[in-house]
């Protein structure tokens, strides 16, 4: 019996190897030319001691493939949704937590990192007109709700959906977008998201996504982005998480920290094992490429250069020195005067296989690359960093930081205030960013102004008074007719929300921008309130976009750069209290009425049916009221019988 079992397992293994070989031969012969899958992971140490992990899985498909509708890598569920609902572009995100722009940065494309506001946000652009888009949107929300085990179907209500996308709308087609700020993200959303991957969580970078560790992070965001082109389809799945390692470093162990040093010098040692609970044991076999990148921000590199200049140290590893002198794709040398693998402040667990500069037009960071396909179970990949001495640096910041809050008192009126402050800290010393700094901080002063656009969807029960709109720049009010670009879609009660887009151009030396508008709080019916109505109602976050053309000095130094640099920042969700009815009143009325009816009919039945009996068994004569009532009932019943005859 044991021999038979061993032979059976040997046969199964043999057929498995044959199947893998056939797949490899088919790939080599060009049968799977129409599909491609790439996975990558970017790790970035943050100044407050946490670590940012950004997983990115890209699945490309050419619809004119040789296999017809049969796909080997691209998920069938997404392909059917795109075809059935005629989607041109779709963006779905599940977010838990709050992104800290001050400590984690805000200059690079946060949209690419999947940084979204809390809750669920869905945006879809269809290839059909607005008349047909409403039906497609309603069916799309139900399909996605069942696919990702979420309450996306609540977005079928047109009172919560915008019909245009503001600054993000591009191309021709109807746009619908909405958000559920109070939606909770859980493992039931992560599991179907992982099922869309070719290897799921059985192989590749997805094996690091252990549910308890991911959901216990400080920030966690899932994103699914689908874009259909001419004969092609691309699915981009991203997961952005901010984790804190459980391991402490000698740089902070046993040290008494000052109050202002609390967030700067808590730098624990970290690795893939301490962050995700396991190392990488290999790449997904179906992936074309699989890489892990460690990013060192430009400000951290500058601090290391300055510290090395003050205390010069000669590297003892000539190979590491040659590797850190490597060049990027443009041929510019890195020109580093310190050892990337082991220096005075930190030591890497593994030497990188490649070092390059990030393709950023402002402050490029260093990317240390590791090829996952070169590692296996016998040689796992455990990228990490061990700190030897404390070092402080600031993340890359955008030109402004934006916040939003409410004013007013009571349940009658209020105002929405958007406050934009300039980030002056990033314009001094080595941390300054000449692309975003004010004109007074630049040498030539020839940089153009900055275009600021705010886009927000306001539910219909917040009745905006647009004549109270005020825009104040550095204490001076801006004329609404001359210096403002306003686009407004008024709200319709219980049918559509209000959509406001405000755009203006400000000089680079602007320090403060205030935008305020007053509103009335509407009254909802009792069946329109959620179960926890006393908690309040969530106002979706606003999207602030800061756009600037590259300066002439930057174009001359960096060569080809984008025509316009954009930074997108989401504000926090706001909680608004509305007038709520006394939900206990219907219960009190029902209780009082039922009690009165019970007492009345109980007394009536007792008078009709009950008889008093003495102990000797002799019946007592009925009361006069009972006798008269019984006669009246008999008289009524006898008349009914005569009528029927």
Write a structural description:
By secondary structure, this protein is of the alpha+beta class. Among the domains are: 269 residues, no CATH class; 177 residues, Sandwich (Immunoglobulin-like). Helices cover 24% and strands 28% of the residues. The protein has 13 helices and 26 strands. It has an eleven-stranded mixed sheet with strand order 5-6-4-3-7-8-2-1-10-13-12. β12 and β13 form a beta hairpin. It is globular and about 115 Å long. The protein starts with a helix and ends with a helix. Keywords: Membrane, Signal, Transmembrane, Transmembrane helix. InterPro entries: PIG-T (IPR007245). It holds the Pfam family Gpi16. This is GPI transamidase component PIG-T.
What's this model, at a glance?
By secondary structure, the protein is α+β, with helices and mostly antiparallel strands. Helix content is 24%, strand content 28%.
Give a topology summary.
Elements: H1 2-29, E1 35-45, E2 51-62, H2 76-84, E3 87-97, H3 101-104, H4 110-113, E4 119-126, H5 130-148, E5 161-162, E6 175-180, H6 187-195, H7 211-215, E7 219-228, E8 232-243, E9 270-271, H8 272-276, E10 289-296, H9 298-310, H10 318-324, E11 346-348, E12 354-357, E13 366-371, E14 384-387, E15 400-407, E16 413-422, E17 450-458, E18 462-473, E19 476-477, E20 485-489, E21 498-506, E22 512-521, E23 537-539, E24 543-548, H11 552-558, E25 565-570, E26 574-576, H12 584-609, H13 624-644
Parallel strand pairs: 1-10
Antiparallel strand pairs: 1-2, 2-8, 3-4, 3-7, 4-6, 5-6, 7-8, 9-14, 10-13, 11-14, 12-13, 15-16, 16-22, 17-21, 17-24, 18-19, 18-22, 20-21, 23-26, 24-25
Organism: Physcomitrium patens (Spreading-leaved earth moss)
Pfam families: Gpi16
Signal peptide: 1-27
């Amino acid at each position: 019996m044991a021999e038979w079992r061993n032979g059976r397992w040997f046969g199964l293994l043999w057929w498995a190897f044959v199947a893998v070989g056939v797949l490899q031969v088919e790939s080599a012969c060009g049968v799977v030319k129409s599909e491609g899958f790439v996975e990558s992971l970017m790790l970035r140490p943050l100044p407050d001691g946490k670590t940012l992990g950004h997983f990115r899985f890209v699945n490309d498909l050419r619809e004119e493939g040789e296999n017809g509708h049969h796909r080997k890598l691209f998920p069938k569920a997404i392909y059917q949704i795109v075809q059935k609902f005629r989607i041109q572009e779709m963006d779905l995100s599940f977010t838990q937590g709050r992104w800290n722009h001050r400590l984690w940065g805000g200059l690079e494309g946060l949209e690419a990192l999947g940084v979204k506001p809390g809750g669920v946000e869905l945006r879809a652009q269809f290839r059909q007109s607005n008349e047909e888009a409403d039906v497609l949107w309603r069916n799309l929300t139900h399909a996605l709700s069942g696919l990702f085990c979420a309450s996306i179907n609540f977005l079928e209500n047109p009172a919560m959906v915008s019909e245009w996308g503001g600054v993000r709308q591009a191309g021709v087609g109807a746009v619908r977008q909405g958000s559920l700020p109070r939606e909770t993200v859980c493992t039931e959303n992560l599991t179907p998201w992982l099922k869309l991957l070719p290897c799921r969580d059985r192989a590749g970078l997805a094996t690091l996504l252990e549910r308890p560790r991911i959901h216990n992070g400080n920030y966690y965001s899932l994103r699914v982005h689908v874009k259909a082109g001419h004969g092609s389809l691309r699915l981009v799945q991203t997961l952005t998480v901010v984790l804190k390692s459980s391991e402490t470093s000698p740089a902070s162990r046993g040290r008494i920290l000052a109050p202002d040093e609390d967030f700067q010098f808590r730098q624990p040692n970290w690795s893939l094992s301490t962050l995700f609970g396991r190392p990488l044991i290999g790449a997904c076999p179906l992936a074309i490429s699989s890489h892990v990148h460690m990013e060192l921000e430009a400000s951290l590199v500058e601090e290391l250069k300055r510290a090395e200049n003050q205390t010069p140290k000669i590297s003892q590893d000539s190979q590491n020195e040659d590797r850190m002198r490597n060049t990027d794709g443009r041929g510019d040398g890195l020109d580093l005067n310190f050892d990337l693998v082991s220096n005075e402040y930190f030591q890497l667990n593994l030497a990188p296989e490649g070092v390059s500069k990030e393709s950023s037009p402002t402050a490029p960071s260093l990317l240390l690359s590791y090829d996952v396909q070169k590692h296996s179970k016998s040689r796992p990949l455990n990228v990490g960093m061990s700190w030897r001495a404390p070092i402080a640096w600031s993340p890359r910041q955008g030109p402004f930081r934006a916040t939003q809050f409410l004013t007013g008192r009571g349940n009658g009126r209020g105002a929405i205030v958007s406050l934009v402050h300039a980030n002056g800290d990033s314009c001094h010393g080595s941390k300054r960013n000449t692309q975003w700094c004010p004109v007074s901080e630049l040498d030539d002063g020839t940089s153009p102004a900055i275009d600021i656009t705010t886009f927000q969807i306001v539910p219909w029960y917040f009745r905006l008074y647009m004549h109270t709109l005020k825009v104040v720049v550095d204490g001076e009010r801006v004329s609404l007719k001359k210096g403002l670009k306003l686009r407004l879609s008024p709200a319709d009660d219980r049918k559509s929300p209000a959509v406001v887009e405000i755009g203006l151009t400000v000089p680079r030396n602007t320090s403060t921008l205030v935008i305020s508008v007053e509103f009335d709080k509407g009254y909802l019916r009792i069946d329109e309130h959620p179960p926890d109505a006393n908690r309040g109602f969530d106002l979706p976050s606003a999207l602030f976009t800061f756009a600037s053309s590259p300066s002439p000095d930057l174009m001359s130094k960096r060569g080809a750069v984008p025509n316009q640099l954009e930074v997108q920042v989401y504000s926090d969700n706001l909680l608004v209290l509305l007038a709520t009815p006394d939900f206990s009143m219907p219960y009190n009325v029902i209780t009082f009425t039922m009690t009165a009816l019970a007492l009345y009919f109980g007394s009536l039945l007792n008078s009709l049916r009950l008889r008093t009996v003495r102990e000797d068994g002799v019946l007592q004569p009925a009361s006069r009221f009972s006798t008269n009532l019984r006669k009246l009932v008999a008289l009524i019943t006898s008349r009914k019988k005569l009528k029927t005859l």
